[in-house]
Amino acid sequence: MLTETRENLALFIASGAYVGAVPIAPGTFGTLMALPLWWFFNQLPAWLYLFLLLLLILVAFWSAGEAERILHQADSGVIVIDEIVGFLLTTVLISFSWPRFIAAFLLFRFFDIFKPFPVNWCDENLHGGIGVVVDDLVAGIMAYVVLRLLLVMGL
After folding, report:
1. Distance between CA 118 and CA 122 in Å, rounded?
2. In angstroms, what CA-CA distances link 107 with 7, 47, 67, 119?
3. In whole angstroms, what is the distance from residue 89 CA to residue 86 CA?
4. For 61-98, how does the pLDDT look when each residue is reduced to its tens digit (9 = 90+)?
5. What does the alpha-carbon distance between residue 153 and residue 155 come to, in Å, rounded to a whole number?
6. Are 78 and 21 a contacting pair, CB within 8 Å?
7. How far apart are CA 136 and CA 123, in angstroms?
8. Is the pTM higher than 0.90?
9. What pLDDT digit, counting tens, does each position of 30-51 carry?
């Protein structure tokens, strides 16, 4: 009973409340799941935003690893918690606006889909829950840097 509850919780979190089960573009829909979290995190003091993001990343490592074990599939498309935390890293401490959301969304999806170095290295060489999540965190960092440059230029 406890094991079943833990597995259901891990799948619920890893799939972004089962958004990852959509048949088309689950990563894109998973990224969209981060939008209300970004809005919520923006209401918080910076230290709490960063603390919650770190906590969510640790939960992502655990839930993605558990989901891989339960689904018997490495980096299953059903797992979208990596997109959620990757996008939240893209938008860390950036105030919300719709133009910023669109830019952040497109930048994160670009780096997540095309996987330039070092995203591709992480994707190919890291395994388990950490491997599922870290390449998206690196994509999020790369998108963050480009987004910050766009903001400096006046976006």
Report:
1. 6
2. 33, 25, 27, 14
3. 5
4. 999 999 999 999 998 999 999 999 999 999 999 999 99
5. 6
6. yes
7. 9
8. yes
9. 999 999 999 999 999 999 999 9
